[in-house]
Design goal:
The chain has 267 residues and is of the alpha/beta class. The chain has a domain of 176 residues: 3-Layer(bba) Sandwich (FAD/NAD(P)-binding domain), CATH 3.50.50.60. It has a 5-stranded parallel sheet with strand order 8-2-1-12-13, with helices on both faces. β1, α1 and β2 form a beta-alpha-beta unit. α1 packs parallel to α5. It is elongated, with a radius of gyration of 21 Å. One of its GO terms (biological process) is kynurenine metabolic process. One of its GO terms (molecular function) is kynurenine 3-monooxygenase activity. It holds the Pfam family FAD_binding_3.
Length: 267
């Protein structure tokens, strides 16, 4: 059963998610289910439709991603596993190669639930970008509180105000010439304040850089061995949340959920 979400309720709080990969889109879904209005920004173009089997079978779209038991449970909790299952293949065996001769040998896995089975689940596999396409379709069909914009770059995060503000600019792919970039002729989309900013934009994260540079986000413990920024709910809700999830969100269902529970005070 899919979890209910609060799309009919006017959102009282706003969130910006920087990065529209699987981690960013799942974070947006989670926040929307809790009544937040979410805007997602990504510097790259959108992925192709997940339904285009000819395109995805080319083998050159992106690397394969394996979903283990915890990852599948996480996707079910978010209500998206049904759609992902349409395009994911099941792993039913192993193909090994002899180190000396290179000869292949195939072995079949014992199905879960039968004596001698190694796992209690069947690993599912699909391309990383196809997973992104599945989640994007889920967002567009079921979550009107989430708006996703592609080819928009986060140029910085301002933490000096009461709420974090994000500077957004068109990505380099949308600019006609390098001279325009060097001449600063790219008009910013705007400096917009949000109640929450989530960084899911990879290693070179503008959100992480802003968080590291801000003296207001210290994580030094106080005398009672608690983090100074966690004592008041109001301060915590305004804090900048940096989610360095990578694929931990898919491999361990607690990644973003624990951050959200701490942030929102949810049980």
């Amino acid at each position: 059963m899919r979890p209910t979400h609060m799309s009919a309720v006017a959102p009282q709080r706003s969130a910006a998610v920087i990065g529209a990969g699987p981690a960013g889109l799942l974070t947006a879904i989670m926040l929307s289910q809790r009544g937040w209005g979410v805007k997602v920004y990504d510097a790259l173009p959108p992925p192709p439709s997940a339904e285009d089997n000819d395109l995805w079978s080319s083998g050159e779209r992106s690397y394969q991603l394996g979903l283990n038991g915890r990852g599948q449970r996480s996707l079910r909790e978010f209500g998206v596993m049904e759609r992902v299952s349409r395009y994911a293949a099941s792993v039913n065996g192993r193909l090994s190669f002899d180190t000396k001769t290179g000869a292949p040998s195939e072995s079949r896995l014992i199905p879960p639930g039968q004596p001698g089975a190694e796992k209690t689940y069947v690993t599912r596999v699909l391309q990383r970008d196809r997973l992104q396409a599945c989640l994007l379709e889920e967002v567009r069909e079921r979550y009107p509180n989430v708006a996703v914009s592609f080819q928009v770059t986060c140029d910085g995060v301002d933490l000096s105000g009461e709420r974090p503000a994000v500077t957004l600019c068109p990505s380099a792919e949308t600019v006609s010439s390098q001279e325009e970039l060097e001449g600063c002729a790219v008009p910013p989309v705007g400096l917009t304040a949000f109640d929450l900013v989530v960084g899911a934009d990879g290693v070179r994260s503008a959100v992480r850089e802003a968080l590291a540079a801000s003296p207001a986000t210290s994580t030094r413990p106080d005398e009672r061995n608690t983090f100074t920024g966690l004592r008041r709910r109001k301060r915590l809700e305004r804090a900048l949340l940096m989610v360095l999830v990578g694929w931990a969100l898919l491999g361990a269902r607690f990644g973003v959920k624990l951050c959200a529970k701490a942030l929102l005070g949810a049980g």
